[in-house]
Amino acid sequence: MTWAAVLALAAGTYLVRLSGIVLRKRVTLPERVARLTDLGATALLVALVATAALTEAGGFAGWARPAGVLVGGAAALLKVPFVLVVVLAAGTTAALRALGVP
Amino acid sequence: MCSVRRTALAPGDLRDALALAAAVTVVGMSFGALAAAAGIPWTLTMAMSLLVFAGGSQFLAVAVVAAGGAPVAAVAAGLLLNLRHLPFGLAIGGIVGRGALSRALGAHVLIDESTAFARARGTGARATAAYRLVGALLFVGWNIGTVVGILGGSAVPDPNAFGVDAAFPAALLALLLPSLKAADARRVGIGAAVIALAATPFLPPGLPVLVALLALVLAGKPDPAEERRRGTDGSGHGDGAPA
Fold it and tell me: What ipTM was predicted for this assembly?
């Protein structure tokens, strides 16, 4: 890693972040397009959940992690407080790994 | 202005933001330790956590360099992974805040978790206050974690042993669930998950999630209930209508 690389990654990432926010400010989006940007965020976040829960380095992440996410998701459906959802998910995965589940 | 911001938050918001920040701190520790193990000077590691503040791309950049890749490849891989922040900004630009300073600072703390955390709190003053709160806490947690990780080095345990890798998708899922009550969001969400999972073995990190945007073709007609919820959106942000 070099300073040039870190600064380039930082500047590029910041520009990406800022440009979306500024674009939203500059143009008044028609209702139809505003709905699509909102649904787009949903699509990205669900895709992140799915890939983070199930995959690791392009392959299957093993059973312990998706099991934990499943328990956390079920807890969230049952309106369990957010903090407990996070703890239950991590605890389930940690317990399964301690038992030798990959 | 300050008092408006303080009262806009719901009672549980601080507790929930702290839970996310705690998990981020643990991952920050592992980032600091990993970067130290890869022989990256602590000044560069800290600069990454302070200036880039995007965990996935920081891990990826370190991995690329540790595997003998060129720094320029690390930058390209990291930027590709962070491209999703642009559509996030488009979606929550109204939540981030109105002033130039709000936007400048808000842009720096735009990550998956802050986006999902704020969206789960609507589009009004509460969402803006929640975004600032969680953004600040995540930033502080990530950087404290990085410092501890650099100092702790190999003594820092693998966060996966504590199931932290399951905590993040579970937290995002919990934040998303209310919005998935709308039929159109559910269609798009399921389509996006299928597309991203199918693409993951074949595309570099970051692209599968972007390709999942193709699921927007499933958006169809607006769900009536969703339309009502969105009714406040057009009337401007910061209208102070907490849930």
Answer: 0.95
